């Protein structure tokens, strides 16, 4: 189905879901005029804005939004020496917002993402769909051919084991994009005019044991279930690689979700990705990653965690050791990254409740009611 370009949003405010339990995290280097389009959907939520680049620059936020803004000076003040684990001059800095949030859920969006329309011409409330995804279980152990069985009008198909129909808690909801696709630089260069106009009305659980390239521009997650694993790595200024921040987090997160019995969904909701980044700049950031990913992905595909890893933090610390041992010989960057992963966990625990409360026992506890 074809989708149309966005137009100014309606002034009718929807009834907000999880209003006091969710923070919206936005990394930016510019004034946040894009929030005007999102006002009907975001205005009643709390925003955490992470300003990248020059901390002396003033970022303007439209009136009427409830927000807190952190720049590099704030990050250094709050984390001290541990601020070294937060990337500079890269959207990976957004994960600082995950760390300082005190809410159960996080939605993160880029400042070049606008409200999309569904095929009927209706504005898509991306945040509402993410919340529905997170509040209904996932089915990573057996694929349902009608996709998400918990959506309105769907169910488990004939032959689906009744013992698996309860599902598992959903930790991550990965949304998609209309207009500018999330391509790597080589694909951008050979398909400069390609645009995504296909709206696929589906939500799928990513099967256990399957990795995927997570995109951070339209992403929601349960911070209590998986937050400490959502570290976007060391990217940008002073690092040999960029544009792999969200994918690194996704690979780490998926291995840990599989181990702890948590689910990851992808598909709806769509946003309208308005601006294509420069493919030549992107190639400079990505070129080492393009080579390294041929080793990185097999590493994550074969990574296993011992049964003693019963919390997200314990899993992440173990994974950092394996990164240093198995990826370190490829390039010294991975030794530095593994150390930063440990620093991230230390900083997370300093600012948050000790991790052992976030255990596999909790993850496998009572499921929330399915959202329709």
UniProtKB/TrEMBL annotation:
Keywords: Cell wall biogenesis/degradation, Glycoprotein, Golgi apparatus, Isomerase. The keyword Isomerase applies. Probable UDP-L-arabinose mutase involved in the biosynthesis of cell wall non-cellulosic polysaccharides. Its EC number is 5.4.99.30. Pfam families: RGP. It comes from the Eukaryota. It is found in: Golgi apparatus. It catalyses: UDP-beta-L-arabinofuranose = UDP-beta-L-arabinopyranose. InterPro entries: Nucleotide-diphossugar_trans, RGP, RGP_fam. PANTHER family: UDP-ARABINOPYRANOSE MUTASE 1, UDP-ARABINOSE MUTASE. This is UDP-arabinopyranose mutase. Belongs to the RGP family.
